[in-house]
Automatic annotation (TrEMBL):
The gene is LOC106455993. The lineage of its organism: Eukaryota, Metazoa, Chordata, Craniata, Vertebrata. This is V-set domain containing T-cell activation inhibitor 1-like. Its main location: membrane. It comes from Pundamilia nyererei. Pfam families: V-set. PROSITE patterns: IG_LIKE.
């Protein structure tokens, strides 16, 4: 086997078609801003729209990964697990969901700044999500930093899976490659030692 081809084979194995950009039939992407600014007391809309327009049947807004902000499913708001700091301060545009409007309306308080994630499911059983960083207007309050430089950057669903595999797989592939090269060098040294003994 040609040793020069191993890195390319490993890259293909772990990344695959991750850079494909064509949407599959019935799929969609989400349009949204990466960041938004607000002042305490403002009523803001965190915009999130499907492209093309797609009938949305489930919308789940979370903040900072674990805090439930607003959930809409089965034709109704499902606020049973909604964090208490959001009670009475959120809404989605129910009449616009069939047109792909998944936006969240929020009355902002001090504790509402953070990284918001909207997970969307359509009537065709396709899913996607968006990430928006809600910050205080410059100089007016806390402004959390993004945990990732990729936050808010959207790829088609199959590409997102490929990127995750690449991020996790490339270090593993490098370790395997280095181990394999080391093993080959050791085998070569053992062969040379055996030849010199003869």
């Amino acid at each position: 086997m040609d040793l020069n081809r191993i890195p390319l084979l490993l890259l293909h194995f772990f990344v695959g078609d991750a850079i494909a950009t064509d949407l599959e039939p019935g799929s969609f992407s989400l349009k949204f801003p990466k960041t938004m600014e607000a002042e305490i007391g403002d009523t803001v809309i965190l915009p999130c729209y499907t492209d093309p327009q797609t009938n949305v049947i489930r919308v789940e807004w979370m903040v900072n990964v674990t805090t439930e902000v607003h959930v809409y499913r089965k034709g109704n708001d499902d606020l049973y697990n909604q964090d208490s700091i959001y009670k009475g301060k959120t809404s989605v545009f129910k009449e616009e969901l069939p047109k792909g409007n998944c936006s969240l309306q929020l009355v902002v308080s001090q504790s509402h700044f953070g990284i918001y994630k909207c997970s969307v499911r359509t009537s065709k059983k396709t899913e996607d999500s968006c990430v928006i960083n809600l910050t205080a207007v410059s100089g007016k309050g806390p402004s959390p930093s993004l945990n990732s430089t990729m936050a808010g950057f959207q790829l088609p669903h199959n590409a997102t899976i490929g990127v995750v595999l690449a991020v996790l797989g490339v270090p593993a592939a490098c370790c395997i490659l280095f181990w394999w090269i080391k093993k080959k060098k050791q085998e070569k040294m053992q062969d040379q030692l055996q030849i010199s003994r003869w």
